[in-house]
Design a protein that fits this description.
four-stranded antiparallel sheet, alpha/beta, Rossmann fold, binds magnesium ion, binds adenosine-5'-triphosphate, 274 residues
C-alpha cells in the first residue's frame, strides 16, 4: 500500500537555442517510485538534477509531460479543478527560501489565520486558538503573533512556513531544501522539528536536499537523482553501505569526508529533552 505512486514521470523544458529554434531538456526523465504511508524519503542530487521540478510535478504545481502520480490511489493528473482543490490541503510543500514564501505585509498571526480560514470551516475564536497552538508546536510563542517576516530570523520564518503548511492538516509533505538558506545549527533544529512533527502527526515526508549526509540522519530511504533520472533508491543503510552507482558512491564519499559542523549526539540529547 502506497500513499504516493509515481510511474514513468517525465518533464521537459523548452529553451530557445540560436535563432528561433526551440530545444528541449528533460529535467525529469522517466522517474518511478513509491512512498509508503509515514515513510520519510529523501531525494538527493546535485544542483540542476531535477529535484524541484520533480517535487512540483508530484503536487501538480506544474504539468508533467508523461507519466502518472497516484496520491492515495487517485491519479492527480486527471483530477478536475474542484477535485484538485479538495485534495490540495492534504499535500503541502515547504520551499527553500522562507522569506520569499511569506507575504511581507502580513503578520505571523494574519498568515496563520488566513491559511486556517481558507481550508477549514473554523470560527474566529477557534481560528486564533488553533493558530497559537500551531505556533507553539513549531517552537514560537504568542509574542511572535504581531511580527512581520522582516522582524524574524530565517529559522523563525521557516518555523512560520512549517506552521502554515500544518494548518491544512496535510498527510503528505514535501520539503524542498527547507534549510539551505539557514546556518548550520538552525538547519539541524529545523530538520529535527520536521522529523518530530512528521512522526507525531503520522505524516509522510519527502525531503529534497543536495546533502546526502543530512538525508541519511532522517530518511528511511534515499533516492539519488542525476540529470533528471532517479538512478537508484534504497533503504538508507543499504544505500550508504552498498551504493549501486559510482555517482552515489562519490556523493557519499564527498559528504562524509568532512567533519560535521553539528554534533549529532548533542542534537539527539536536545531532541530527548524537548
Ligand atoms: N522554468 C524553467 N524553464 C526552463 N528550464 C528550467 C526551468 N526550471 C528548471 N529548469 C532547468 O531544469 C533542470 C532541473 O532544474 P531543477 O530546478 O529541477 O533542479 P534542482 O535539482 O532542484 O536544482 P537545485 O539543487 O539548484 O535547486 C535545470 O537544468 C534547470 O536549469
Ligand atoms: Mg531545487
Amino acid at each position: 500500500m502506497s500513499i504516493l505512486s509515481v510511474h514513468n514521470l517525465s518533464k521537459r523544458y523548452a529553451w530557445r537555442a540560436s535563432g528561433f529554434k526551440m530545444k528541449y531538456k528533460w529535467a525529469v526523465d522517466d522517474v518511478s517510485f513509491d512512498i509508503a504511508p509515514r515513510e520519510i524519503v529523501a531525494i538527493v542530487g546535485e544542483s540542476g538534477s531535477g529535484k524541484t521540478t520533480l517535487a512540483r510535478c508530484l503536487l501538480r504545481l506544474i504539468p508533467a509531460d508523461h507519466g502518472s502520480v497516484l496520491f492515495e490511489n487517485q491519479d492527480i493528473f486527471t483530477l478536475d479543478r474542484s477535485a484538485l482543490r479538495q485534495l490540495r490541503p492534504s499535500m503541502q510543500m515547504i520551499f527553500q527560501h522562507p522569506g520569499r514564501a511569506l507575504n511581507p505585509r502580513h503578520t505571523v498571526g494574519q498568515t496563520l489565520t488566513e491559511a486556517l480560514q481558507v481550508h477549514r470551516d473554523i470560527s474566529e475564536t477557534g481560528c486564533r486558538a488553533e493558530a497559537l497552538r500551531l505556533l507553539d508546536r513549531v517552537g514560537l510563542n504568542a509574542s511572535y503573533w504581531h511580527r512581520h517576516p522582516s522582524e524574524l530570523s530565517g529559522g523563525q520564518q521557516q518555523r512560520v512556513v512549517i506552521a502554515r503548511a500544518l494548518s491544512t492538516q496535510p498527510r503528505f509533505l514535501i520539503a524542498d531544501e527547507p534549510t539551505s538558506s539557514l546556518d548550520a545549527m538552525v538547519r539541524q533544529k529545523i530538520m529535527v522539528l520536521l522529523d518530530e512533527l512528521t512522526k507525531a502527526r503520522h505524516m509522510t515526508l519527502l525531503i529534497i536536499t543536495h546533502d546526502i549526509r543530512t538525508a541519511s540522519h532522517y530518511a528511511n530511504r534515499i533516492g539519488v537523482m542525476q540529470q533528471g533520472k532517479l538512478i537508484e533508491m534504497q533503504p538508507t543503510q543499504e544505500l550508504l553501505s552498498a551504493p549501486q552507482h559510482e555517482y552515489t558512491h562519490q556523493l557519499i564519499a564527498h559528504a562524509f569526508a568532512t567533519p560535521e559542523t553539528i554534533d549529532q549526539h548533542e542534537l539527539a540529547l536536545e531532541r530527548e529533552t524537548q
